[in-house]
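Kindly inspect this today.
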Amino acid sequence: MKKVIGNLLFVIFCIIVFFVVALISGRASFYHTLAKSRAAYQVEWNDEVGTIYRNLAENKEMQTGYDLYIPAEKSADNKYSLILYIHGGGFTSGDKTDSDAEMLCKYYTSKGYVCASVNYTLADKEHDSNINLMYDEICEQVKSIKEESEKLGYELTEMATTGDSAGGCLALLYAYRNPKESPIPIKLVFEMCGPATFEPAKWGLDTDRQKAEFITSFSGTTVNEAELEAQETKNILKQISPAMLVDENTVPTVFAYGINDKIVPVNLKYELINALKNAKVDYTYIEFPHSGHAMAFDPNLTEEYLDKVDEYLKKYMENEK
């Protein structure tokens, strides 16, 4: 992304579209909206709840690393489910210690899950990053999470991915792209307001130059105007667009979007809905009619969303049965 950061396209669609949301919506927190209406999701953290191992597999230059949340209570068979949280921030900002990450991981750890919150290389002034690099980094960290958990005596036998905004997109990608290659079997994904596709036309781009630069920016693979209709370009888009990866083997999915979202185009959600419906995948979509990208103005639906997530966890996680 850094290579084209100076052009008009990237400024409009990567910085304004995504970075502004990190400033506006990211700190009008979805989970803190929930916390105001449902105290049960606020955990008083102490050693009787669990232990947090900070900055594991850290690479400061690449900004990668993760925090591992281990529950204090041991299971009878020593088998555990992982919930992997991926932070948002428009692919340009955010951190594994953001308030949403802390709240969600502490909550699910208190319920007996192992949780991890990961960082990835941001597309900022110092780093030339893209969605494919971020995806690869998350894959490598999941391997490390499994190994570190086992060293601590916790065997991870299944997992769910989750995130919001950019993190929601990456959570979908990890769950959909190469699920059979995951060292921990993926059982479901739940996310909020993550872009479901990067097909340029669906972002309102008209000129071939804009479309080519857009794909190049997000994928990290150079695409020129003459190649837009090529099969190779379609394959490049598919690898970064969760909705294009859906098939009959896609894991169950819970997702929510605000109908007044001015950051991620509202129409993108239909790409995911239609793909899941056509593939006959078990999914639940919850629409927030009064909310924008922050998902901040429908507290009753916030509770409904997380209740539905709990329902799916109990239904699809073997360690919950």
About this structure: Residues 131-151 form the longest helix (21 residues). The longest strand covers residues 50-59.
